[in-house]
Amino acid sequence: MEIGDPELWIPSPVLEGMLEAGLHGMNLEGLPLRTRSKVVKEAVCGALGYPVPLSFKKTQPRFPGQNFDTYTQKSMNLQIWNEELSPNRRYALIRISDDDRITKVRVVGGTDLAHLDTTGAITTKYQARLDPGSVPVVLVSQNDTPEMIPLLGSVFFDKSEGPTDAPRAGRLLPVAEICKRLAPLVGTTFTDPGMDQERNRGAALHRLVCERLGYSHYEDNGQFPDVLHQLLEVKIQTSPTINLGLVLPNSGEELGCPSVGGHSPRHLDTRYAVFYGETDGTQVRLTHLFVSTGSDFFDRFRRFEGKVINGKIQIPLPRDFFGD
Fold it and tell me: CB neighbours of 104 closer than 8 A, spacing ≥ 6?
């Protein structure tokens, strides 16, 4: 509809008030992220008096009639995916508390958000799809890359060696041995820190992985790859979409870590342990494990084509953004 239409257009202050009245106090506890997004959009329709569709089309913006998008915020970091800020669009930012209740709604224009975007840069990430299949443990790569093979060993680690130590020749497990040691984790359950706590969920798995590999203690410095000592990246998937970061696994780019036996490790030399699991919101149960080198990664996982790169703008919101 035409912006400013005297009969149909809802001015931003009124829109904010209607959404605040209709959504405040709403309980989203236990809902997966996609379900939560749909439930919130349904509540938005109810607050504005619109009929609720069976499904929401992927339009930009999601509510084209009133020209606004909705973003649920549990952190103060706004992420806008696969598009630039639109100066004419409105953005309804919905704050969610630590106990998963809606506590505040703000409606702001794209120009206002642009003032908060200090870089204007879009962070890009590659993605792939995981189809679990019926086999619970799959060793995708029978061997490591040719450059890595002379650097491998079959070892048990002493207390002085940690997961974040630099890799060393003769102290790197073969990819098949990594799979053998991690395979018993399939069927394991651990506490789910929350549907929107992917990073903490990954840390819980990382701790189990360190134990199974034979380390005497757990370490994680948040850097790639997770277990630098083994050039091993660990991923936990409860949905089919694998986020791969800024570089493709089969890239020949160097990792930037110290050389190993005269070889500078590349992304394609990295080993990947990809776990698939199910969660009921309380417990995660690991159902599948796939172990691969970066070189062979796309032999098992389908790279997203078409929109190969998933991009986002990240905008840090001021502490007092919601009026606190």
Answer: 20, 24, 94, 95, 322, 323
